[in-house]
Design goal:
The complex is a heterodimer of chains A (about 350) and B (about 270). Helix content of chain A is about 25%, strand content about 35%. With about 350 residues, chain A is an alpha+beta fold. Classes of the chains: A alpha+beta (about 350), B mainly alpha (about 270).
């Protein structure tokens, strides 16, 4: 279990990379730190590893306060974005390096390295140098090295971002299966929302050193706590439209919808995912009108952009159902979210 | 067409002359030791090995090569160790005014090794009882070489990514283990370069060795070379050339060995 209390990191120069974070990561949990670059997610991971010292607050690993402990005494293993495989050592020596530091006798080191290598389908590569391996193999060697020291927690910094797109999907499935089998608490950093949704048990969405939302992938996807999370999560960005409620009726982007009960009159932001908008060719008062201006083929579906005088609305339609560019169309919301003052209603 | 040919011909002749200018002394060094009566000109030698026998009869000749090895090797070892530690620290720790410090050191080092500092250095060596010792020579010449060595090695250190060290740190490696297991193997070409450069500098150095050493039995080859004159003061070319040839062989051998083993890469670093 990893728990953070009021964790704050201010870099010299005044950049507040972490701002009073509180978080508990359960045993065996696969936890994602998600956010745009510069949001503090890597700083947080490095602070857990001990490579950065927090300005205030504390880090506990398995109920032990490790805030002031050096990285080597926290019993965590970290995989870096560039893998940091030692170029002058063979794969076997790389995997066995943590054991060498722990003064494990040489024969046992070799046995354990070979065992981990077999598990990650690396045998036969043990005598190669990192430079002679493909990207995917290097990534597995880095994982093997982390596994070999049998830590209480894994810390992965963008573990998949150095792989090409096709390999990344394969490695993603592999990583998830591996984490399930090992059942070791794992924290990983990513800027890719799809990766976070696919891998993690829980996700923390970060922005400007704060955690905007912590929840399961389903929670974060279905009920994003703020418009920022709503825009960040999802492979196509959510439509966020300015709206207004007057006496129980919601007016947004040319459509009139019944307002949900218990919401006071006033301005708000209306959010609807393109996947939850149905495209119609007949006018309806509760659908958003517009003219088809752009079609983007997504393979099994098409992303249609409807243009009106002042707004763009995007909807996803099934393969083959896309209307031609220039035709008027109406987007009917199936599921929506309302935000007022930056909060979900 | 004719102008073109004349131009090419002139260029070729010019290059040949320049080449000869540099090659002739080398040729002299190769032929004179085997010549019974060498002169300052290069000619087909009147072949003999007597010069080698004569130089070996000189009581200080062989010993001076050993002295050069002690002083050069000692200085090279000291420079490599100290420069590696200093360059690592300067590369990894943020010191205010680090670059100014480095440039200042580099500037001062040319003064320290120059004649300007000779009197204070001699005074210092006398008070510290370092006159006429190998250690005195090693310390003084190392001091002169260190700034440039730190400067060059820092470049090598800067080019090794910090994630290697951070990765080792997370696995629990101490600073010394990181230096030994990770950093030194990665900058080994740089260390080899510095070692060769330091040794070669000391090998050819004369002034400090000449002033700091009294006992000819401790003098390095570069100083002994200076004694190979007749009593009238004219150079004994057969001995000078023979000794020069012998004296240059170890350095040439070392160059070849290190160059073949590591290659000289001043802007090496790791291909990623």
């Amino acid at each position: 279990m990893i728990s953070l209390h009021g964790l704050t990191k201010v870099f010299p120069g005044g950049v507040r990379a972490l701002d009073g974070l509180d978080l508990t990561i359960a045993d065996g949990e696969f936890f994602a730190l998600l956010g745009p670059s510069g949001c503090g997610k890597t700083t947080l991971l490095r602070t857990i590893a001990g490579l950065e010292t927090p300005t205030s607050g504390s880090v506990h690993i398995n109920a032990i306060d490790v805030t002031t402990l050096p990285p080597g005494r926290r019993d965590v293993a970290m995989v870096f974005q560039d893998y940091a495989l030692f170029p002058h050592m063979t794969v076997a020596d790389n995997i066995a390096y943590p054991l060498r530091i722990k003064k494990v006798p040489r024969p046992e080191r070799a046995t354990r390295a070979a065992e981990v290598a077999r598990r990650l389908s690396l045998p036969g590569l043990l005598h190669r140098r990192p430079a002679q391996l493909s990207g995917g193999q290097q990534q597995r060697v880095a994982l093997a090295r982390a596994i070999a020291c049998r830590p209480t927690a894994f810390l992965f910094d963008e573990p998949l971002s150095n792989l090409d797109a096709r390999l990344r999907l394969e490695a993603r499935t592999f990583l998830k299966r591996l984490q399930r089998e090992l059942a070791v608490t794992t924290v990983f950093v990513t800027h890719d929302q799809a990766e976070a949704l696919a891998l993690a048990d829980r996700i923390a969405v970060m922005s400007h050193g704060r955690m905007i939302q912590v929840g399961t992938p389903a929670e974060v996807f279905q009920r994003p706590a703020t418009p920022f999370v709503a825009a960040f999560i999802g492979s196509t960005p959510m439509n966020l439209l300015p709206g207004h409620i007057t006496s129980g009726t919601l007016h947004v982007a040319g459509a009139t919808l019944p307002a949900p009960a218990g919401i006071a009159d006033g301005d708000l932001v209306y959010g609807a995912r393109p996947e939850y908008l149905e495209l119609l060719l007949q006018a309806r008062p509760d659908a958003f009108p517009g003219t088809v201006s752009v079609l983007e083929n997504l393979g099994t579906s098409t992303l249609v952009t409807l243009e009106t005088d002042d707004t763009l609305i995007q909807a996803v339609v099934p393969e083959g159902d896309e209307p031609p560019v220039g035709t008027p169309a109406w987007a009917l919301p199936r599921r929506s979210l309302l935000y007022r003052d930056g909060r979900l209603l | 067409m004719i102008r073109h040919t004349i131009g090419r011909l002139a260029a070729t002749v010019f290059i040949a002359v320049v080449l000869a200018f540099f090659a002739l002394p080398m040729l002299w060094l190769a032929s004179a030791p085997f010549d019974a009566s060498p002169a300052i000109t290069t000619s087909i030698p009147d072949f003999t090995l007597r010069n080698f026998a004569a130089i070996l009869d000189n009581p200080y000749a062989l010993g001076s090569i050993r002295n050069s090895l002690i002083q050069g090797g000692g200085a090279a070892a000291l420079v490599v160790v100290l420069a590696a530690l200093a360059a690592y620290a300067l590369s990894r720790v943020r010191v205010p005014g680090r670059d100014v410090l480095l440039y200042l050191l580099l500037l001062l080092s040319s003064v320290v090794t120059g004649t300007a500092a000779m009197v204070p250095i001699f005074e210092l060596a006398t008070r510290l009882d370092l006159i006429d010792t190998h250690l005195g020579v090693i310390l003084v010449v190392s001091g002169g070489l260190l700034p440039a060595a730190i400067f060059i090695l820092k470049d090598f250190m800067d080019e090794t990514p910090t994630t290697y060290e951070e990765s080792a740190r997370v696995f629990g490696a101490s600073s010394l283990q990181i230096l030994r297991h990770i950093v030194i193997p990665l900058v080994r070409p740089g260390l080899a370069t510095i070692a060769v450069w330091a040794l070669a500098s000391v090998w050819g150095g004369f002034l400090f060795q000449f002033i700091l050493l009294r006992d000819p039995a401790k003098a390095p080859g570069s100083v002994i070379l200076y004694t190979l004159y007749t009593e009238g003061g004219s150079p004994r070319l057969e001995l000078i050339s023979t000794f020069s040839l012998l004296y240059s062989l170890p350095v040439v051998a070392m160059y070849l060995f290190v160059s073949q083993r590591y290659g000289f890469r001043f802007h090496g670093g790791i291909k990623r």
